[in-house]
Specification:
Elements lengths: L1 H62 L2 E7 L5 H16 L11 E9 L7 E8 L6 H5 L3 E9 L1 E3 L8 E4 L7 H7 L5 E5 L8 E2 L2 E2 H6 L10 E5 L11 E2 L7 E11 L2 E2 L4 E2 L6 H11 L21 E9 L9 E3 L1
Parallel strand pairs: 1-14, 2-15, 3-12
Antiparallel strand pairs: 1-3, 2-3, 4-11, 4-12, 5-6, 7-10, 8-9, 12-13, 15-16
Length: 327
């Protein structure tokens, strides 16, 4: 009887264990299915949110409109820097994407006003969207530079990138000499543009023609206004302007163009993001005259459109061969 009871207990125990194991397996299976479904749903939500986020970012890029300033380093030309800015913005918004290419195109215009040579650095004013139409007014605004020159050497390009064409002693040049001659460069004066410049002949820059060895005639003198010049430092052979010896420019920095200053307004490259530029446009709108300030506007048509880019470059000085160039 004891054996019978034991068998019954054992049978009961086995039965209970079997039911427990079966229920646990079913529960685990259900939990696994639920977890997979939840993971799939979460992934779908994440993917959907990412698409919405990128679409919103692309729409924000297309809505940017106004004028701001960037900090140009030595090395790239103004056009190359503009291209770098464009590429950063496109990469951030992941545009154009394959899903956009089937839709209607919309052009994002971006350009700069006031060319800086590749060897120069400083403030470069940029227009985006309808802001490109305001760049002409930036060219007529005042500018401020800091120039560092070297006495005793003259170059064919007038700066450190050219070949040395002449060398003269400078040991008798003093700070007083420089400060005394500065008056000749102040006020309303006539200035002959250098041959190595961004001015154009038959649609080509004079500097490009000169580098090819072509004969180039100097442009006629033109009126300019120099509001003030000051000698900030004099450590021979280095100074800020040329004297009766000979000299060349070692470094040129534009610290101000129109209302934009290098320290306060020029965005460094690590701030070339859609959000940072949007904030900068908001801030810079208050710097512009009321008649030039742009109202916030949406791009024409739907924001579900592919982005193409149009470059607008305005020359520093407008002449018969100068104008707006679209690439």
């Amino acid at each position: 009887m004891a054996d019978s009871q034991a068998a019954a207990v054992s049978s009961s125990t086995l039965k209970i264990d079997t039911v427990s194991i079966s229920e646990t397996a079913e529960t685990a299976s259900a939990m696994a299915v639920t977890s997979v479904a939840a993971a799939i749903a979460a992934a779908a939500r994440t993917g959907s949110e990412a698409r919405v986020s990128k679409a919103a970012l692309a729409a924000k890029l297309l809505s940017l409109s106004g004028v701001f300033a960037v900090r140009k380093p030595k090395g790239p030309t103004s056009a190359e820097l503009l291209n770098r800015l464009k590429e950063k913005l496109l990469a951030e918004a992941e545009m154009p994407s394959p899903e956009w290419t089937k839709r209607k195109k919309q052009t994002l215009k971006i350009g700069h006003g006031g060319t800086l040579d590749s060897a120069a650095q400083g403030v470069l004013v940029v227009g985006i969207g309808r802001g490109t139409k305001m760049l002409t007014s930036m060219l007529s605004g005042s500018k401020r530079y800091i120039a560092i020159g070297e006495l005793g050497k003259a170059t064919d390009t007038l700066d450190s990138t050219g070949k040395v064409t002449e060398e003269k002693p400078y040991d008798k040049i003093t700070q007083e000499h420089i400060e005394g001659i500065l008056q000749k460069f102040t006020g309303n004066i006539m200035q002959v543009p250098p041959l190595y410049s961004a001015l154009k002949k038959d649609g080509q820059r004079l500097s490009t023609l000169m580098k090819r060895g072509e004969v180039v005639e100097a442009k006629p003198a033109r009126p300019v206004t120099v509001y003030s010049i000051s000698l900030q430092k004099f450590q021979p052979p280095f100074f800020t302007l040329e004297l009766s010896s000979c000299a060349s420019v070692l470094e040129l920095t534009r610290t101000k163009q129109g209302p934009f200053t290098l320290e306060e307004h020029a965005l460094p490259e690590d701030k070339w993001t859609i959000d940072d530029i949007a904030q900068c446009l908001e801030h810079c709108s208050s710097l512009l005259p009321a008649e030039l300030a742009l109202k916030k506007s949406k791009p024409e048509g739907s924001h579900e459109q592919v982005l193409s880019c149009e470059y607008i470059t305005l020359n520093e000085t407008k002449g018969e061969d100068d104008g707006i160039k679209t690439l």
